[in-house]
Write a structure and sequence with these properties.
Elements: H1 18-36, E1 39-44, E2 51-56, H2 59-68, E3 73-74, H3 78-87, H4 96-106, H5 112-116, H6 119-134, E4 140-142, H7 143-160, H8 164-187, H9 199-224, H10 232-238, H11 249-263, H12 265-280, H13 282-296, H14 310-322, E5 329-333, E6 337-339, E7 342-344, E8 349-352, H15 354-357, H16 377-382, H17 401-418, E9 419-423, E10 430-433, E11 435-438, E12 443-448
Parallel strand pairs: 2-8
Antiparallel strand pairs: 1-2, 3-5, 4-12, 5-8, 6-7, 9-12, 10-11
Helix pairs in contact: 3-8, 6-7, 6-17, 7-8, 7-11, 7-12, 8-9, 9-10, 9-11, 12-14, 12-17
Bound molecules: protoporphyrin IX containing FE.
Length: 449
């Protein structure tokens, strides 16, 4: 039987739950889940502009939206519209025929074998970072700043190869401006037209122009064929599908921007929280040290070591359970669908939340406890597939998940070989700037081993 009314907070008579959602969406979702259950309806914004958000918190609901009924849930949500405006129609945002063609061309560049070729770049960058740390007089680092810089360097090397020196300064300067702009527009109920010359619009246009220019220059050189490189931009320019189709120069640029956008802060957040959680759980850190010492015996890790580092892999998975870097996943329903006994009508905004589902008491005992052993193969097999979905799922699952796991495990291995970490700050509140970010510094003291 289908219940008619989806439960949810009434909120303020004029603006509904707008203020609570803007102030702390994850906490608001978490409380609503406890109070109303697995499907909750929020209204937000003034009458006339009011959004209705259907939040779905069960593993079964996530599976239906992302996998079994994915054809009924489109990437037409506000956030995706805003990302599309700024970064064009790359793999993260494109849909229908365009998407299928792009995925056919790009997927072969992300096979396990292809991605494993980037292991050397990851270890090089991680080694350079700890060499720099050795010169730090007080041995204190902010793990967030360090991991953002590291992952930016890694993704830039993977994309641009030897052109990293030309690309990195522009990306470092312009990307944060554009990300912050997208985040603000995605959250604001009223969006000022992009053409209006407001300071925010002007800054975002300038940042986008500079990024386009550097990407276009590198792509043009590669397309001329004189500069044959095995980096991702080189591979994108040469990719051909079975029907002989290729990506246009604009499409290649859009993919580059999407890989930068989707592939750097996400892994940085995972690594930063991973290091901080390790520092606060000495017994876990010790077990991780033991594994790293046994398997690597002082040498640098390679992609082939990933399987021999199961404990470190579990540490990364448990970190992503507690701090999923993409804590919200949005869709818009294109047809009526029933979830958890409720009708979600066509046209509704639907919001999934790995943050809430990863703390769902039905799947996770003592959900706030950091316990990597939840991810032994036996215990993983006992849980519903979508109790843990930091990389999304179904046909639109993250294409970068192996790259990100490889980068996270290898980086932790390199750091743990050299250091123990001592936490200097408690874990503070988080915010969602499309991706999850800590609001307060996460500093650690490095203790050489
Ligand atoms: C911890 C790291 C990462 C997390 C948590 C993450 C999370 C996600 C999630 C949740 C989605 C699905 C979004 C949706 O269904 O609406 C996604 C898609 C995607 N991610 Fe990641 N991601 C990570 C790293 C990366 C990396 C390293 C790259 C590439 C360099 C990347 C590129 C993409 C792309 C292109 C898509 C769209 C795939 C498609 O629709 O076919 N991600 N990611």
């Amino acid at each position: 039987m289908i219940a008619t009314r989806i439960p949810g907070p009434t909120g303020h008579p004029l603006i509904g739950s707008l203020r609570a959602l803007r102030r702390n969406i994850l906490d608001t979702y978490q409380r609503a889940h406890r109070e109303y259950g697995d499907v909750v309806l929020f209204t937000a914004g003034p009458p006339g502009w009011r959004l209705k958000i259907h939040a779905v918190f069960s593993a079964e609901g996530a599976q239906r939206v992302l996998a079994t009924e994915s054809a009924n849930f489109r990437k037409d949500s506000r956030v995706y519209q805003v990302i599309r405006e700024s970064f064009g129609d790359g793999l993260l945002t494109s849909q229908d025929e365009t998407y299928l063609r792009q995925r056919r061309l790009v997927q072969p560049l992300f096979t396990r074998r292809q991605v494993n070729r980037y292991a050397d770049a990851i270890c090089d960058e991680a080694t350079a970072m700890i060499t720099r740390w050795r010169q730090q007089p007080d041995g204190v680092i902010d793990v967030v700043d360090e991991m953002v810089e590291l992952t930016l360097r890694v993704v830039s090397r993977v994309l641009f190869g030897t052109d990293i020196d030309a690309a990195l300064p522009v990306v470092r300067r312009c990307f944060p401006t554009l990300s912050a702009y997208i985040d603000r527009r995605g959250r604001s109920p009223l969006r000022i037209p992009r053409k209006w010359p407001t300071p925010a619009n002007r800054r975002a246009h300038a940042a986008r122009r500079a990024l386009y220019q550097i990407c276009d220059e590198i792509v043009a050189r590669r397309r001329e064929g004189f500069d044959r490189q095995e980096d991702l931009v080189g591979l994108l320019t040469r990719a051909v599908d079975s029907e002989g189709a290729r990506l246009s120069a604009d499409e290649i640029r859009d993919q580059i921007l999407i890989f930068l956008f989707a592939g750097h802060e996400t892994t940085a957040t995972t690594l930063a929280y991973g290091l901080h959680l390790l520092s606060g759980h000495p017994e876990v850190e010790e077990a991780a040290h033991k594994e790293v010492d046994q398997v690597l015996a002082g040498r640098l890790p390679t992609a082939e070591d990933l399987e021999a580092l199961p404990y470190l892999t579990m540490v990364v998975k448990e970190t992503m359970r507690l701090y999923p870097a993409a804590p919200l996943i949005g869709r818009r329903a294109s047809a009526d669908t029933t979830i958890g006994g409720y009708l979600i009508p066509a046209g509704s905004d639907v919001s999934l939340s790995p943050w809430v589902t990863h703390r769902h008491p039905e799947y996770w005992g003592q959900p706030e406890r950091f316990d990597p052993l939840r991810f032994t193969p036996e215990r993983e097999a006992e849980r519903p597939r979508y109790a843990w979905f930091p990389f999304g799922g179904g046909p639109r699952a993250c294409i970068g998940q192996h790259l990100s796991m490889l980068e996270s495990v290898l980086t932790l291995a390199v750091i743990l070989q050299a250091y123990r970490l001592q936490p200097l700050d408690p874990v503070g509140p988080v915010t969602v700037n499309i991706t999850l970010r800590p609001l307060t510094p996460l500093r650690c003291r490095l203790i050489p081993r």
